[in-house]
Amino acid sequence: MKVEHELHGDRKVYSVSAFNRGVASWLTRLPTLWVGGEVTEFRRQTRWQSVFFTLKDPRDGSCLPVSMPRSGFDALRLELADGMTVHVYGRPELFAARGEFRLRALSIEPLGIGALLAGIEQLKRRLSAEGLFAAARKRPLPVFPRRIGLLTGNEAAAKRDFITAVTARFPAARILVVQTYVQGPRAAPALATAVADLAAEPEIDVIVLARGGGSFEDLLPFSDERLVRAVAECSVPIVSAVGHEQDTPLCDLAADARASTPTAAARLVIPDESELRERLSGLRRRLERAPLLLVERKRAALDSLAARLRTLSHQSTLSRGYAIVRTEAGIVRTSAAVAAGDQVEVELAEGGFGARVEETRP
After folding, report:
1. Which of 22, 148, 286, 360 has the fewest Cβ atoms within 10 Å of its own Cβ atom?
2. Is 175 in the same domain as 268?
3. pLDDT in tens, 251-283
4. According to the 3-state scheme, what is the secondary structure of 266-325?
5. Does 118 reside within a domain?
6. What phi and psi, each to the nearest 5 degrees, are found at residue 14?
7. Are 149 and 206 contacting, i.e. CB atoms less than 8 angstroms apart?
8. Residue 152 domain-assigned (yes or no)
9. Which residues span the domain enclosing 140?
10. In a domain, 264, yes or no
């Protein structure tokens, strides 16, 4: 690209626009390359056609502005955030209108914890789309499990805390403890196999997956796809008690219930015996009072029925001054039923008398 200039005496003078276009043209000769650094000042707006951030060299603070077309960035499905370490593949360019030098990104790859977080987030979206985390899949925990399976590591704390809490709540509870790797590259497959094996043990009605706190890397096996699928496909309900309250590995989302600690898991899977005994005592007292209450209710119902019968009886009507007139044919209800000279019987509230009809009136 030829850059025009003007002559001022013996000088060649380039305008700012021409200079910027010339430098921009020269930069296009440079090859695409990878640049690594820490993401800072990440900016993304819905209306923008590009996303922008700055790559910083953590060793000396050197900075490089980066832009990437919005469509290409969205296709990568990255959860990019400040502080992540990334490798950016792109080419240098100069935005001629403003004289701004930057790297135009063609691809981005997270590194370190940032890459792990991005991978977990992608797996989370994929498994969620399959329905593994759906609320409809969650099964209720048994009220009185015949046998509790505890899957944990060799660490004493998680196992001790759970067993101590269960024993305090329900001393007769039966627990089958299975210990395996809970961190490192061998943990995920070992845990996945142990989940299936433990569920197959006789009378196991619920499984508790327990591990104490640890670093982000320590808890990675509990977000491994193999273990998450094993938890989701387990034949008995599973309670996940992994890490601390702020930790949420993917197995938490696939489990039927989540507990913040092994002690909290104990409260979910087994009732408190003392509370049960107190409730039973209350029920027994109410059952002892029940027959008396039933008799009282029956007596009250009979009294009410008797009062209604008394109100509806003819004797109650007669006591108010009415009388019943009868002939041999029955009760006289109209004057047409008798004639002058007929003999009738009159019933009163107390006693009665005979009479003869002298006349009838319509």
Report:
1. 286
2. yes
3. 999 999 999 999 999 999 999 988 888 888 877
4. HHHHCCCHHHHHHHHHHHHHHHHHHHHHHHHHHHHHHHHHHHHHHHHCHHHHHCCCCCEE
5. no
6. -100, 140
7. yes
8. yes
9. 130-274
10. yes
